[in-house]
Each structure stands twice: as structure tokens, then as C-alpha cells.
Write a structure and sequence with these properties.
Order of helices and strands: HHHH
Radius of gyration: 15 Å
Helix content: over 70%
Largest sheet: none
Shape: elongated
Distance between the termini: 14 Å
Length: 115
């Protein structure tokens, strides 16, 4: 149960970060469609994390999917030439935290399915 809650907290923080990054904008902001997608994934993550905290398995699955999609959306930052170093660093942090989140959420989810 502790791993599940820790994973949900990290996922919620990442969801807030997705929303904040989309709203903050600035001169080096990602393109508008990417910012909208990131904000939507962040919002879905927050809602699903809330329901996952209450013990709903489907919500935990939704958190996993939205976090993986968000991390996949960050991967092009590693290969594009014109991406500022700060975005590459934040993409790396996002991917690492997403892997940690999924690693925390999957085992408790599998245990609930067996029980």
C-alpha cells in the first residue's frame, strides 16, 4: 500500500508539472499541440491519482498510461537539434521519474488483481 501511495504522489507531482509547463509558456515553450497534450495528460493524471488514492484499480491503470504517454512525448527532446538544454534535462527527469512511478504502481496493482 505504501508503494502505491508513493507512486500516486509522484504521479500527481508530475501531473502538476505537466500543467504548469503548458501554462508557463515563455519564449522557449514547446509547440502549442504538445503543450495542450501535456496539460491534458497532467489533468487526467491528477484526477486518476485522486481516484487511485481511494483504491480504484482502473484509476491506477489510467495513471500508469498517462504517465507513460507523457514520458513518450518528452523523448523527441533527446533527438531534436534545436531543443534548449533545460528542456532536455527536464525531459530526462520526467522519464526517470515516470519509470520510478510505474515501478511503484505496477506491483501493488498486480497484487490486488491476484487477491
Amino acid at each position: 500500500m505504501r508503494a502505491l501511495r508513493t507512486g500516486l504522489v509522484i504521479a500527481a507531482i508530475l501531473g502538476v508539472a505537466d500543467i504548469a509547463a503548458a501554462i508557463a509558456g515563455g519564449g522557449d515553450a514547446p509547440p502549442l499541440p504538445i503543450a495542450i497534450a501535456a496539460a491534458a495528460l497532467g489533468l487526467i493524471t491528477l484526477v486518476a491519482a485522486f481516484y487511485g488514492w481511494q483504491g480504484r484499480r482502473a484509476a491506477v491503470g489510467t495513471v500508469i498510461v498517462t504517465r507513460v504517454l507523457s514520458a513518450l512525448g518528452a523523448v523527441p527532446a533527446f533527438f531534436a537539434d534545436d531543443v534548449p538544454a533545460a528542456f532536455v534535462a527536464s525531459a530526462a527527469v520526467l522519464v526517470v521519474l515516470t519509470v520510478a512511478t510505474v515501478a511503484l504502481l505496477v506491483p501493488p496493482l498486480r497484487r490486488q488483481a491476484v487477491a
